[in-house]
Please model this.
Amino acid sequence: MSGFDRAVLIEINAKVDLLAYVSQYVTLKKQGREYVGLCPFHAERTPSFSVNAEKGVWHCYGCDAGGDLFKFVQRHENADFPTAVRMLAARAGISLEETPGAARRRSEREAIYEANSAAQNFFVASLRRNNSAQAYLKKRGIDDTTARAFGIGYAPDAWDELGKALAKSSIEPPVAHAAGLVRQRERGDGYYDFFRNRLMLPIYNLTGEVMAFGGRALDDEQPKYLNTPSTSAYAKGKHVYALNVARRAASSDGALIVVEGYLDAIALHQAGFANAVASLGTAFTPEQARELRRVAGNLYLCFDGDTAGQAATARSIDMLVEEGLAVRVVTLPAGTDPDEVVLGGGREAFQALLDSSTPWVDFKIEITCSRIEARFANKGEIAREALAVIAHVRDPIERDQYVKAMARRLDIDEGALRRAKYSPTASATITGARRDTDAPIVRAAHTSHPEPPSIERDLLQIVLSRPAFLSAVAARVTADDLEDDRFREVFAQLLAHRDEVERGLNPVSVLSENEESGEFARLALSAPSMSVEEDERRLARVLERFDRRRAERRLSSVDAEMNVLLTEGRAVPSALRDEYNALAVRLFGLDAVGRG
Model:
């Protein structure tokens, strides 16, 4: 749990009331034993957000988000777990205690933040002294107020000016090197500045520290963008530019506008689109997709309209849709960027593009058809590849409408299209997931996880809603007794933190860093309302079912072992025969005795 002393987490749970905290942001009304309201994480008109103060969990039945106090702070502030803990500890007046390893990593990050802060001050001051950089900003339509708001600066065309400025701020060269601000010379001692003659754009984390920089060339120098390499404070492929300022507007609008370049995002903010972010690279990673999904479930994807841009858009769509985001594609006029659109036509011009955006399926089908038609492919091949795209539409009604539209477009019989099979190659290129190549388009989408056996679901539900029962459960059930992979992993986590749970740590808090914590929050909330005595009887029945299943497994194993011996003409040891008979009597009664 990210290196914090467990006692601190327990104390935070005891001092910060979940219901009171959530009520700051959500208007809640009592409904039975729970409190309900409009979900703060997606747009809705009918309340589907529920809080159970007694169990210390919340869940939205609309977007399936859920968890404990820490998870709510993570989602609402778009923060990682350690940041959420620090925010809650500060609120409760609790002094944090971290493991030595976590404290060392935090110290390294804070040293980098300090170096980056000093570097940003230097870059901002340098911008004020450089006419070329100021002229470049003016040409891109970025005014002084916006430049200050985003902390834009300039790295001089020199080899050691930044290094000297950092030294004056007491930033040691090894720290500057760890931050990616300077490089070590290949020959001899010393360092040289990594960024030179570039517009400098700081990349902030969600708590306001500068994690890294993007350096934009002022001329045709390559690369066009030079970014901070991965450091202890910044991991490439895990962050989204301007999300720290866009998340509030995105939470309100329920959508984010995603563009390629830093300056595109900044120009959109200046034009009034406060929910704009940049991808920090064209093709998205799963980590970036999850960062976006935590803020808003709907995206407007706005990449360049050239061939490379379309290819990047197609790749990004695959990742974003797989992570559960609803995507629309914004088509830019040929040869233009978003900042050029607002510079030439103002807010209205870009808003018109948003209004005419295309659902991701339409975009993918168009790209698919255009690409195949260019190879003079036949209608069958086009249809199969397009069906592989349509298969990823989750809503069956919407999926059906796309089949109808595709039949009209290809001028083929709708029934024949529905009987067509997926193209295995095309399906694999969508998400890399394995597909049933014989499945027709009318087949329902395969769920991400099979429904686990009810006995295991019941056991976890009891433990999550009655953590005091965990010791009794641990005495009778091990993680290996669970067959479902996810439930086995979760139960193992709970057993590993059994002492902390017994001292008062919410069991849902143990799962805060689990990607599927929302499902387990829902499981805890959906537990039937029973007295302690009724829950004890329910647990006894569940434990008895586990005992029986364990006995059935052992009986099957003994039976197989005896079969091998009998087939080989060898005698069955009396101990093995006795064990078989005892198990058979227990499971099936006296009539089962006599094997061997």
User: Anything to note?
Assistant: The first helix runs from residue 6 to 15. The domain at 6-92 is CATH 3.90.580.10 (DNA Primase; Chain A). The chain is about 55% helix and 10% strand. Confidence is low (pLDDT under 50) at residues 423-452.
